[in-house]
UniProtKB/TrEMBL annotation:
InterPro entries, sorted: CobU/CobP (IPR003203), P-loop_NTPase (IPR027417)
Protein name: Bifunctional adenosylcobalamin biosynthesis protein
Top-level taxon in the UniProt lineage: Bacteria
Family: Belongs to the CobU/CobP family.
Pathway participation: Cofactor biosynthesis; adenosylcobalamin biosynthesis; adenosylcobalamin from cob(II)yrinate a,c-diamide: step 5/7; Cofactor biosynthesis; adenosylcobalamin biosynthesis; adenosylcobalamin from cob(II)yrinate a,c-diamide: step 6/7
EC number of the protein: 2.7.1.156, 2.7.7.62
Enzyme superclass (EC): transferase
Record's signal peptide: none
Keywords tagged on the record: ATP-binding, Cobalamin biosynthesis, GTP-binding, Kinase, Nucleotide-binding, Nucleotidyltransferase, Transferase
Catalyzed chemical reaction(s): adenosylcob(III)inamide + GTP = adenosylcob(III)inamide phosphate + GDP + H(+); adenosylcob(III)inamide phosphate + GTP + H(+) = adenosylcob(III)inamide-GDP + diphosphate; adenosylcob(III)inamide + ATP = adenosylcob(III)inamide phosphate + ADP + H(+)
Amino acid sequence: MSVLFVIGGARSGKSRHAQTRIEALPGRLAFIATGQAFDTEMEARIARHRADRGPRWKTVEAPIDLPAAIDGAARHADALLVDCLTLWLSNLMLANHDVETGIEKLCGALKVCPVPVTLVANEVGMGIVPENALARRFRDEAGRLNQRIAAVADEVVLVAAGLPLSMKRPG
């Protein structure tokens, strides 16, 4: 198992860093997308991201069942990039799925994945306390999710202003 967790704020460069790291690996690559295009802005964002990836990439959409997508993609790719865990968490919460069960299944899938996996997430706990209960719950759940993934990961990199900072090194 080899799990890289790349975390950072919005527009910090975390996705670019994760993609660059995984593209340095040989073989077939799978991009597991958790975002959904509910409006034209998100459609354009998804199209831009697809255009940034070359022919080595196969895209798998997994807004809810991320553990199954990781298992399936690992059968046909030599490395996986999941972008992003924060949107996946939003999807789980808005669909009234059990977040703790989802995180448990995700951690289990990462522990047995036979190919390298890179996961991207937003750090949402460095700002002000949100004013409504749902936003506070989301912030709290995201913090717990990020801690759980960091514990499972072999390497954790924080990206701020486009600069990577190693937080946990392999080995």
